[in-house]
Fold these 4 entries.
Entry 1:
Amino acid sequence: MEILLVEDEPSVISLIERGLKGENHSISVAMDGFTGLKMAGLNQYDLIILDVMLPGMNGLEICRNIRKTNKDVPILILSALNQTEDIVEAFNRDADDYLTKPFKLDELRARINRQSRKARQQTTTSNTITIDNLVMDRDSKNVQRGGKSVILTATEYRLLEYLMVNKNKILSRVDILEEVWGMDFNMSTNVVDVYVNYLRKKIDHPTEKKLIHTVIGMGYILRNEN
């Protein structure tokens, strides 16, 4: 994979470069935010890893700017900030994954490999999913409910896609965290509930028929009650 690493700590840069050496990854490094954003715009990368606290421009601003022109490149946030609100804010900027410092190289490798698998799977899965009058085109990443377009962030889209692929199946919060966010951290975080509520406001609230349901004590399910 062609990876852009935007990180200003030499020790972290060295750790990642050494840790990924020999795994068919090519790593380009930017040590400040402005350089990172410029490199992201000029080159094609398979993955971008962003620190949050950077000179010039922080990683969340870089992520927001990248998404203006590139909706598809996977972005992994690497940060010492580990509160729920920090994580939610990163996904609100359309990051794909979030890994807190200090981290283990094995976990970083696993997350990179996961993004690579997701990219391959997107080329082999069915292009359109339909449940009742909710339609998702996985090629264009367009979602419609009742013929009207629904504008979703990248994280909201991934969550809805996971619910739709697993329609009529109860998904626990742990299942959703692992699949949508690729996370294994404090299970007390309410990031799943926050994003389910975001989805409900866009998918269900404008209509009388609700598709996203809570199963108390178990998780969430997307189903057509008819």
Entry 2:
Amino acid sequence: MTDPTSSQAARLGRRTLLRAVVLGAAIIPLAACVGEEDPLAKQAREGNNKNYIAGDGSVEEYAPESRTAPVEIKAVAYDGSAIDSADWAGQATILNFWYAACAPCRIEAPHMVELNKEFGDKAQFIGINVRDEKDAAEAFERNFGIKYPSVQDTEGSIQLAMTKYVPLKAVPTTLVLDKQGRVSARVLGAADKTTLKALINTALTESL
């Protein structure tokens, strides 16, 4: 004769197993939709001060219909000037994430200076320093003749905020924003001058 208690336990066990299988099936697709965490954002969150992941110079352009909302940044630059993304409308904006001891940053710095001069008030260049305190950053800027402002982001708040728009993944990373303030292109690693110039021209001349 079958023990009623044993039969009831077996039925409960089957229900529990079935519920686990159904829930598991619901959870797996959701997990698959979550992308891998941006490595630079992870470093900023961990606060390990490494702040350097090598980029390969790769370029990614974003079609107007695939761009995110306009980038929003409010900060104070090393020179005391106010940085407000609300002021960027109507021009191209170049955000360059860097720090002084980063070898690729030193390679691309002269190109940034030359392009800043070439584009004048048609494009706004802004540096985002991910590691240095004020003295080290300003020494770098003097050494390379950088006139455009840079913002200190050693705590990683801007880097983390940028994950809403496009993953950074490397230092240096350069983002080109269109005339609406949306990310139109990303360069991972040292930016080639000719390539960056073409990306800025595209942002300035495209019909949105």
Entry 3:
Amino acid sequence: MRVLIAEDERMLADSIAEGLRAEALAVDVAYDGDAALERLGVNDYDVLVLDRDLPVVHGDDVCRAVVESGGSVRVLMLTAAADVPARVQGLSLGADDYLVKPFAFEELVARVHALGRRARPADPPMLARAGIRLDPARREVYRDGRYVPLTRKEFGVLAELLRADGAVVSAEELLEKVWDEHIDPFTNTVRVTMMKLRRKLGPPGVIETVPGTGYRIR
């Protein structure tokens, strides 16, 4: 899942981003509304965590632009205004959910995950193929009954390959969905991660490289 944090309080924005990355999410950060709109125009996000009182372009206008674009990104609006009329107004702009500051980080994570499930087709309780079983909720992977410890990025790559259900997934798609905008598009990170993932899954090999196209699980 890829998330954009649009929040002008830099310490808060960076703290949210760090916490969500620890949840194996790909996270980008924008510190004003104009930067948020720029990133939304370039990248495909599942969830936008949007501070309502953004500078340059107000959060309300960012929310309107997201709704008018007709995309699938879900909006979690953050605000210091706790009164009911403010919450109703935020939701009427097209926000999918509303969270009042200060908030418990665990609640924000739960809401982001819930919105992410709405932004894409729901995963089954267990992703399985070729003897691999991946539990998205518990972030656990088993190969032929053997537990396989994976890093966050290895888990994210494997999840995307399993979701493709045998179709080829390009390195560019993996970079888009598993990493964030700071990754060098010419990096060999995907290839290195794939090598480590294959090693951990063990023989026989199930991840196939399709030359010039990408990867798939046979």
Entry 4:
Amino acid sequence: MALIITDECINCDVCEPECPNNAIYQGDEIYEIDPDKCTECVGHFDEPQCQQVCPVDCIPLDPDRPETHDQLMEKFVKLTSKS
């Protein structure tokens, strides 16, 4: 699953630089995650780095985008391939 940022976000700016896929960006009101770039850090780290640094725990899995570990790995390969 891709991750989402909920309305509890306090715009503290700590998650954005932690994302190895540059999936996190400043939205109109809070930070947002591009689900096409989010791999939950699969391929980079053992745990989603944004979740690790978030002080308000507002980055859950997106229930509308179920993805298996293999699908996340495929997305990682596509994002990091030099084509």
